Amino acid sequence: MPALAAVDVATLDAELAWLARVVELRLAHYFAEGAPASPALPGALAPTPPLQGDGPYAAALQRHALDDTERLLMALALAPALRPALLDVLAVHNPTTQRPYTEFGGVHGGPFLPTGETACFLLAGDDLALRLSALQRLSPQGRLAQQDLLHVVSLPAQAPGAASALGQGVQHGLLTPGAGFVATALPGPALPPLAEPGGLATRVHSGLDWADLVLPAATLAQLEDIGLWLQHGRTLLDDWGFGRRTSRGHVALFHGPPGTGKTLSACLLGQRCGREVHRVDLSLVVSKYIGETEKNLGRLFDAAERDGWILFFDEADALFGKRTGVADAHDRYANQEVSYLLQRIEAHAGVVVLASNLKHHIDDAFLRRFHSVVHFALPRAAERLRLWRAAVPAMVTAEPSLDFAALAQQHEIAGGTIVAVLRHACLQALARGDAVLRASDVDEGIRRELRKEGRAA
């Protein structure tokens, strides 16, 4: 990963110092006795620092032609990741109510995280015209959101500082720098995870490699086909003109019992082809606010298409299961959301992977639209033996009575179950203070896992 240019460190230092000065001035004015009308910030009291050099961050600000206010908003959104203590002064409590100041906004309970209300306070104070202008800049229709520079992500209702259902809006959402902006402006530092568009997806990783996949040859061949699409699909569609005859994306269904490698395969497929994999949280897909689902999904798919992500929908049968009759308005809205999601998946010019433990729960009307259906079966004895041996840590010694070949023959279990068994046995070894893997601990781990699966131990 490239290192952040030294000149950009100076630029970021200057931007964050400028933000700290704006916070200081706004608070000083807010708490001053008999203060005149709120000054517009940034402005003469907090002049914008000149950009220093042409590193990635400075270049991104110039390329997008961000004005002073937009630069300040970007610094505010990045502050929790780059300088967490900078905004702690806004986490003070009102001595009268013994609660955080409503005017300051923010999410409490840890490092202060700025919301739209925080931005309005810094830019406008109690000036209504300035506040309305700030809200316009933060709007989903504003250029900051439209160009994936800055988003305001809705918070779950239980989050500290989140608004009630009646009060949710731009001012209550979390300020989040756009993934596209971060990728180009901050290519070097390992920033803490940033919220994805709409809060619907989370990037997933794996510390394993493609060689660690233990799957039947037929399954690996189907995964290779998806990899070919990722590597050569654009050439096939555009240069060879095949885009006139087929859709521009690839939709795959991964189905099979839990622990057979569906999520791992998606992660390693992305790793092998240089693509990020983002798992979509289906519990957040169907919003209780009419129209919110379409907007959030639109942003998610737009970001995935722009940055080449693989979108991974786990437990897809929960959303794409066999349909029943429409009993009430809730069912009609749910069907509308599913139809919209299916349309977006089909129109998406990228790879979408849907995972399910039970293929027969997926509606046949959906199955016909998938480009590939990949079965992840329980591993056979030879594959289970490979999994047993590969999962034992290098610093651990198995006692002589531990026969992995016999275990592989005797127990028809998935790779994920084997890892869970060895995790239990290794923890027992650590508790004893040795590095010996005992057969009795492995047997107990197998019994526990089989009981969890509802099978005879």
UniProtKB/TrEMBL annotation:
Keyword Nucleotide-binding in annotation: yes
Family, as annotated: Belongs to the AAA ATPase family.
InterPro entries: 26S_Proteasome_ATPase (IPR050221), AAA+_ATPase (IPR003593), ATPase_AAA_core (IPR003959), P-loop_NTPase (IPR027417)
Top-rank taxon, per record: Bacteria
The organism's taxonomic lineage, starting at the top: Bacteria, Pseudomonadati, Pseudomonadota, Betaproteobacteria, Burkholderiales
Segments forming domain AAA+ ATPase: 248-380
Pfam families per record: AAA
Keyword terms: ATP-binding, Nucleotide-binding
One MF annotation (Gene Ontology) recorded for this entry: ATP binding
CDD domains on file: RecA-like_protease
Annotated protein name in UniProt: ATP-binding protein
